[in-house]
Each structure stands twice: as structure tokens, then as C-alpha cells.
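> example.struct
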């Protein structure tokens, strides 16, 4: 990236990664043909297609953004090990297979490294429904003679546990009440998808979800919501480069916590029906205070990108990470680019500098990689980012999208030497 140029123009946001990675395994519950639209063209999605295919499903990519999946002939309730380790969302096969086949065997999942990532709340939920859970030899095995509806209170608000238990329970006997659930937009999207397949899920997006088990489900056509975090990443990139960018194909309501923080920094945010325009042309933005929390709070998946903006804001900012216990690893990379950041436990203290300086850096994980891209767009000179396959896990055509708004960015391959 040769940075220092304000971004201008329009960016189209793709379908939501974290909705897609739940909805693709959820097709198992249909036991029939599904057509999924507005799917993001990212590597995590293709890994899930490979898993479904190896389990006996028919997966046909219809276009760059749509896929036909027929899970009627699934022959295995076991998820292939090497693929499962590539992404966190492979654990959604636990809930989906349990819900359909009363049996599941899934290797303990991989995914971004933010410290300890327990799955105790998933297991608490499965057991409350009457499943036997065994963890051993690097896998989770679950079986049941038949799940029964239950009342489950989650001890922590967990996106993954909420989704996994929703998947398991849609065909269970009776009523299930889930309390202290996650309220992220992709929870609501999954509930809408399950209902389109014949499920009876109510209350998604609030503190309590009620699910009445149904005996039959069927395939459907469904279009996935736009990606809140991809949109937020381009909003912050526009702000950080002093640009003027319309981010299109979004649900502005999903972006409110990000828009509010940008406004705290003095950036102009203009909401349209399906777009937000970011204007940041009046010099350095102001410092501010950010604390991550589950939706509708400020998303942890925007923390590294926003912290990167704050490195060049005028004044002292604080970023409190309240969801993950170790999501500041990328800060070492930002320091290499001249950022002034001190980390104290869950808080990063950022003293704004005039600008960043270019350097060779690495993508530590998906969103940390996106943060490095924003840092490279800010810094004058040439920044190279290594390990970009992690960015490709979650951002469709990031090079092309940024080029279209004036960034000088290209994808290069070096030989190993
Ligand atoms: C999802 O991860 C997302 N991944 C993450 O996005 C995101 O950071 C996270 O939710 C929080 O929003 C996907 O949707 C695939 P959690 P998940 O369960 O479900 C604790 C990205 O960049 N916890 O909501 O794994 C946990 O330790 C990715 O796109 C338990 O204690 O997150 C954490 O502190 C990375 N026990 C908190 O809850 C459990 O059983 C939230 O985790 C489960 C979680």
C-alpha cells in the first residue's frame, strides 16, 4: 500500500461473514434444497462448502454471491478434522447435526487467537436439552435419544453459544426459552433463515429467544444481510484518510455504535436508506473513548480498526476491550508504524500522532489484518502486509474495493526466499 491519499467514491458492502458462516451449516436442518443469496465471496465460506460436500451434501456455486445447497443426502455426522481447524464457525455443525441427526462429532474449532476461547456455554445448552457431550482426543462428540425443550440461562453473552443452541433446538420437542442471549444482527438473520425453513423462533434481537420445536423443516431461498463489520471497516478507512466515501448496501441501524463513535471524533456521518456517507475533510479527527461490548454496544470486531484511526487523532484516546481477554496483539505492529500506544490490562491508551510511517507488518488475525490495511492507507510511503490470507477469510475483494475509491494498493506474491 502506498498511503496518504484520501479515499473518495463509493464502496459496495458484501453479505455478512458471521451470518453466512452460521446459515451455511444451518442448511443441514432443511434436509432439502436451499438457495442462499448475497453470500460473501470469502475463503471461510468455501471452507464450509468443502465440509458440507465431504459430508455428502450437494453444493453448487450458482454465481459469485449465490449458492445452491441440498443437504437431503448427508451421510456423515462427522466433520473433517483439517477443515474444521481452519475456522471457528465449524462448531456450528455441532448444533446443526445434533438438531437433524441426534448425533455430531466435530473437532475442537480453530479461528482467530484472542486468548482462551471456551465453549462451556454451548455445552451447558446442549446438556440442558438432554444431550450427552464428550470431549476427548481433540473432538466434541454429542448424542441424544431425542432433545427436549428447556429453559436455559447463559452465564455469559455468547454469539456462538446462542447460535449453536438455536440450531440444536429448532426440531426438539416442546418449548425452549433462551435467556441472556446475544443480540447481534447475525443472530436475527439466522432466526429469519430458520423461520423461512419452517422453524418457530421468536424474540431474536432481544434478551430472550423462544423456540417451539417443529417436526418438519424444508428448504428455502434466503438473502443474507450486509456485513456490519466490513461496512464499519470502510467507514473507519474513509475517516482515517480524511476522505469522503459512500458505503452502500448497508443497514444503517446496524452501524449506529460505529457511526456514533466516528461522530464523537468529529467525523460527519450521513445516513441514507441503505448507505452511510463518511466525510472527514476538516483536519485530524478528535480523540475519544471506546469500550467494546456485545450488540448493541461497540463491536469487538471493530476494535483494531478503530484503534488504528485513534492513533492519528488529536489528543489522548482510550480503548477498553471488554469481550476478549487478549485482543491487543496487533498493537506491536502499529507501534512499528509510529503509533504511540500503552497497553494496561484490558485498556489501550493511545496518544495521537500527526501521521503513521510506513513499515513491513503482519496480519495477526482477520480484523488485525484489516487494521494494518487502514494503517497502510494512512502512512505515506510503502507499507507491506504479510499473511494476508487471514484478511481474505473475511473481506471480499478488499484490494479491488479500495482501489475503486482511490487507494494505491495491490496484492503481490513473493517467493519464499
Ligand atoms: C463470534 O465469536 C464471532 N465469530 C467473532 O468474530 C466475534 O469477535 C465474537 O462473536 C464476539 O462478537 C463468529 O461469529 C464466527 P462469543 P464467538 O462466544 O461466537 C466468552 C471476527 O473477527 N465465552 O460471543 O466465538 C468468550 O471467551 C470474529 O469476525 C465463554 O466464556 O464469540 C468471550 O469472552 C472473530 N464461554 C465472550 O464469551 C463460551 O462458551 C464472547 O464470545 C463461549 C464464549
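> example.seq
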Amino acid at each position: 500500500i502506498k498511503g496518504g491519499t484520501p479515499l473518495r467514491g463509493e464502496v459496495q458492502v458484501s453479505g455478512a461473514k458471521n451470518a453466512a458462516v452460521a446459515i451455511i451449516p444451518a442448511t443441514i436442518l432443511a434436509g432439502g434444497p436451499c438457495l442462499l443469496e448475497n453470500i460473501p465471496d470469502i475463503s471461510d465460506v468455501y471452507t464450509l462448502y468443502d465440509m458440507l460436500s465431504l459430508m455428502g451434501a450437494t453444493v453448487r456455486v450458482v454465481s459469485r454471491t449465490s449458492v445452491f445447497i441440498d443437504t437431503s443426502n448427508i451421510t456423515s455426522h462427522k466433520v473433517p478434522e483439517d477443515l474444521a481447524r481452519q475456522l471457528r464457525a465449524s462448531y456450528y455443525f455441532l448444533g446443526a447435526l445434533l438438531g437433524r441427526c441426534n448425533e455430531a462429532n466435530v473437532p475442537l474449532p480453530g479461528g482467530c487467537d484472542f486468548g482462551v476461547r471456551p465453549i462451556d456455554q454451548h455445552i451447558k445448552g446442549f446438556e440442558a436439552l438432554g444431550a450427552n457431550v464428550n470431549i476427548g482426543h481433540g473432538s466434541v462428540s454429542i448424542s441424544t435419544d431425542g432433545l427436549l425443550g428447556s429453559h436455559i440461562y447463559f452465564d455469559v453473552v455468547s454469539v456462538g453459544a446462542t447460535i449453536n443452541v438455536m440450531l440444536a433446538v429448532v426440531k426438539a420437542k416442546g418449548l425452549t426459552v433462551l435467556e441472556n442471549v446475544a443480540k447481534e444482527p447475525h443472530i436475527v438473520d439466522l432466526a429469519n433463515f430458520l423461520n423461512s425453513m419452517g422453524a418457530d423462533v421468536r424474540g431474536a434481537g432481544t434478551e430472550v429467544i423462544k423456540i417451539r420445536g417443529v417436526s418438519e423443516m424444508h428448504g428455502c431461498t434466503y438473502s443474507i444481510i450486509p456485513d456490519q463489520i466490513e461496512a464499519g471497516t470502510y467507514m473507519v478507512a474513509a475517516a482515517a484518510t480524511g476522505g469522503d466515501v459512500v458505503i452502500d448496501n448497508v443497514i444503517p441501524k446496524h452501524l449506529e455504535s460505529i457511526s456514533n463513535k466516528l461522530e464523537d471524533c468529529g467525523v460527519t456521518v450521513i445516513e441514507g436508506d441503505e448507505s452511510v456517507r463518511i466525510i472527514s475533510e476538516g483536519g485530524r479527527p478528535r480523540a475519544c473513548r471506546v469500550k467494546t461490548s456485545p450488540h448493541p454496544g461497540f463491536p469487538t470486531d471493530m476494535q483494531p480498526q478503530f484503534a488504528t484511526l485513534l492513533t492519528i487523532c488529536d489528543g489522548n484516546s482510550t480503548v477498553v476491550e471488554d469481550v476478549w481477554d487478549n485482543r491487543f496483539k496487533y498493537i506491536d505492529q502499529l507501534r512499528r508504524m509510529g503509533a504511540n500506544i500503552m497497553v494496561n490490562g484490558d485498556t489501550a491508551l493511545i496518544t495521537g500522532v500527526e501521521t503513521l510511517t510506513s513499515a513491513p507488518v503482519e496480519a495477526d488475525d482477520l480484523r488485525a489484518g484489516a487494521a494494518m490495511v487502514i494503517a497502510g492507507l494512512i502512512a505515506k510511503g510503502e507499507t507491506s502486509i504479510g499473511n494476508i490470507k487471514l484478511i481474505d477469510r473475511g473481506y471480499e475483494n478488499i484490494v479491488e474495493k479500495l482501489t475503486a475509491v482511490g487507494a494505491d494498493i495491490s496484492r503481490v506474491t513473493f517467493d519464499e526466499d
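> remarks
The pocket of EPZ is lined by residues 18, 21, 88-89, 112, 117-122, 156, 158-161, 182, 300-301, 323-324, 366-367, 394 (CB under 6 Å).
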